[in-house]
Amino acid sequence: MSERHDDQRDEEEEAEERSAPAARVVHAAVAEQGEDELDRPAASLFWSGFAAGIAIMASLWVSGALRHYLPEARWAEAVVALGYPAGFLIVILGRLQLFTEHTAVAVLPVVRAPTRRNLLLLARLWSVIFVANMLGTLIATALAVHAHLQPADTLAGMVTVSEKLLARTPLDTLMQAIPAGFLIASIAWIRSAVNSGDFWIVFAVTYTISLGGFAHVVAGASEAFLLMWAGQASLGWAIGGFVLPALLGNILGGTGLFALLAHAQVRNELR
Which chain regions cross the lipid bilayer (predicted)? Predict the structure, then answer.
């Protein structure tokens, strides 16, 4: 009898190990990560965000190189889109601060406890990371255009990849940034729910963003600022025509949709 009881307990333990964690467990893990981000010193957030703004340029470098080497064909854009995850892999797996990924994570502790202190910490986190990300992309794109960091053919491919932004209205960018914000915010949730495969999670989600033509404020800012430094767009267009609409759309998608819905599904289960 004891033997059968032990076997049953072993089976139950194995079943528990093989089961995906409950939604409230994932929620707690993501919220804990968000609390850690909220408590980090402003200087740490800034330099991490600045590094992320530079590192996200890898997406544009790889995409531009692919655009240069590929022929003009209907399928070519799907291959060029494979370059888009490069910068995100460096930033997210390297634990750098990217607006929409870590900033969406930080919303959960605020939703759970919307105190004045938490709201101020969230505002500080958002503002510091966003400014740092923008400065990083602004400087990196200036160097890409004027310091010859890459071959001229690759730069030409980068400009070609970026030119698609010029066809969008600010409203188009706003609406296309909502799905991007939602998808990027989902990365932290998915990574907390599984034990491995971080590379493929980030790759699949960010490739989806590129393939779908969605707008991410930081990756897109690198394209907008590149066009500005290359003389194909003005600073006013880069900020007002792309960055601000993309910022609003990403916030709506990442915070207004994903973070709030992720909390809503477990709100009645929290103690």
Answer: 45-66, 78-98, 119-145, 174-192, 199-219, 239-262
241-250 per-position pLDDT tens digit: 999 999 999 9
Which domain does 164 fall in, by range? Answer: 23-269
Alpha helices in 94-151 (DSSP H): 102-105, 107-112, 116-146
Residue 54 lies in a domain: yes
Provide the total of helices (H) and of strands (E) in the chain, helices listed first: 16, 0
Q: What is the pLDDT of residue 169?
A: 96
How many domains, the chain?
A: 1
Whether 87 maps to a domain, the answer reads: yes
Q: Which of 138, 155, 157, 107 is nearest to 243 (CA)?
A: 138
Residue 104 has pLDDT above 90, yes or no: no
Q: What percent of the chain is modeled with pLDDT above 90? A: 60
